[in-house]
Amino acid sequence: MNDLMPINLEKKFSAFTDHWEPKIVARMNGYDLKLVKFQGEFVWHRHGDTDEVFFVHKGEMSIFFRDGVVRLRQGELFVVPRGVEHKPAAAGECQVMLIEPAGTVNTGDAGGEMTAAADVWI
Amino acid sequence: MNDLMPINLEKKFSAFTDHWEPKIVARMNGYDLKLVKFQGEFVWHRHGDTDEVFFVHKGEMSIFFRDGVVRLRQGELFVVPRGVEHKPAAAGECQVMLIEPAGTVNTGDAGGEMTAAADVWI
């Protein structure tokens, strides 16, 4: 039998240092599992056509909404519903796994200089 | 502002003790994030219409294929491609998060007594 390799999040996170630039580690049915490091404040934006899962692998982060906030720690997740404006932020570095359709752009409808390529694998 | 509650995997896993019975903790775009505890051997089966993500939250498990095996530890994940026959197993208890379309049945095409309801939330 062949030994297949799992995807190890710790190893994948150790392979990059930039912030706010999601990297794809796996794809299922056209959905991407992406790793990203957050630090500081992102831009307000929305994804008009998709929900978005945030899962914290390490560290702490917040997702601000116009009328609320959710604070996430290691081992916690939250689903941002489609169309809902939000702004991720993290005081210290936070390691996050995102789940969203392939091709989803990090800044959604907002665009701007924090927009990252949506098709980078690591 | 309202403080929203994240989904804490540790708390969710501590809320049930049964094995091989996935519980939904979140839904995004019609996909479910399900928690399940594995112990022992599951049945050989396939899902003809969907890939399936296995992410290990705690413990160790294996996914056997007809021509190979992948061994997963905490913080590791693997995508089983649609149509590929597989058999999950774990020597000790293993806590796993599955990602798959809502309604996906755990035993796939195999059926049998290990088949669990696909719509149980926790």
Largest interface comes to: A-B, 39 and 39 residues
Tally of individual helices of chain A:
1
Structural class of chain A: mainly beta
Please tell me how large the radius of gyration of chain A is.
Answer: 14 Å
E-strand count of chain A: 9
Number of separate domains of chain A: 1
Instruction: Name the shape of chain A in a single word.
Output: globular
CATH topology of chain A: Jelly Rolls
CATH class of chain A: Mainly Beta
Q: Biggest β-sheet of chain A, characterized? A: 7 strands, antiparallel
Average pLDDT over all residues of chain A: 97
Oligomeric state of the chains?
homodimer
pLDDT below 50 for ≥5 consecutive residues: which ranges of chain A? none
Q: Termini separation of chain A (Å)?
A: 27 Å
Features:
homodimer, 122 residues, mainly beta, Jelly Rolls, 1 helix, 51% strand
Give a written overview of the molecule.
The structure is a homodimer of 122-residue chains. Chain A is mainly β. Chain A has a single domain (26-122), classed as Jelly Rolls (Sandwich), CATH 2.60.120. Helices cover 4% and strands 51% of the residues of chain A. The first copy, chain A, has 1 helix and 9 strands; from the N terminus they run ββαβββββββ. In chain A, strands 3, 4, 5, 6, 7, 8 and 9 form a 7-stranded antiparallel sheet that branches. In chain A, a hairpin with a 2-residue loop joins strand 3 (23-28) and strand 4. Chain A is globular and about 55 Å long. The two termini of chain A are 27 Å apart. The model of chain A has no long low-confidence stretch (mean pLDDT 97). At the A-B interface, strand 1, strand 2, strand 3, strand 5 and strand 7 of A face strand 1, strand 2, strand 3, strand 5 and strand 7 of B.
